[in-house]
Amino acid sequence: MGLTEADAKALVNEGVLSADYDEHKEAIEFYDKALKIIETSETYLNKGISLVELEKYEDAVTCYDKAATIDTNDSLIWYNRGVALTQLEKFDDALSSYEKAIEVSPGYADAWYNKAELLKHKGQDVEAETCFAKVKELEGE
Questions:
Q1: Helix 41-53 and helix 24-37, axial crossing angle in degrees, nearest 10
Q2: Residue 139 neighbours by CB under 8 Å, 6+ apart
Q3: pTM for this entry
Q4: Is the pLDDT of residue 26 over 60?
Q5: Which CATH number fits domain 5-138: 2.60.40.10, 1.25.40.10, 1.10.472.10, 3.50.50.60?
Q6: Beta-carbon neighbour count of residue 68 at 10 Å?
Q7: Among 27, 28, 95, 136, which Cα is nearest to 81's?
Q8: What is each CA distance from 118 to 12, 62, 75, 107, 135, in whole angstroms?
Q9: Where does residue 25 rank: exposed (0-12), middle (13-18), buried (19+ CB within 10 A)?
Q10: How many helices and strands (H and E) does the chain possess?
């Protein structure tokens, strides 16, 4: 008998537990096993997060890209893609990812904040201040 979607979900849960204990290599092994059963955006997202923790940013971006082909409307995918791209100093691509996260979830304060930081880094201070103001508004400050 073959493995089922329920088996894949159990493997993802094991991966998340491993990641919670900073066992990211082990977590990735669980995610890879789950992906052999069924490819889900959640599994690719979680694998990407663990890859970032291991500073494997290019591999993480690949996972986020695969996740986004499955679910284009998950702001967490786009946000985390932006984080990985920022680490790779691919600032324009990172900015696009944060903008997509905001498009999907306009109230995503962390995405607004990271967008502001990137704009500030690029010398676009007026645009950055607008984003920082949005963060304050969203956080009720």
A1: 160
A2: 109
A3: 0.94
A4: yes
A5: 1.25.40.10
A6: 19
A7: 95
A8: 32, 21, 18, 18, 14
A9: exposed
A10: 8, 0
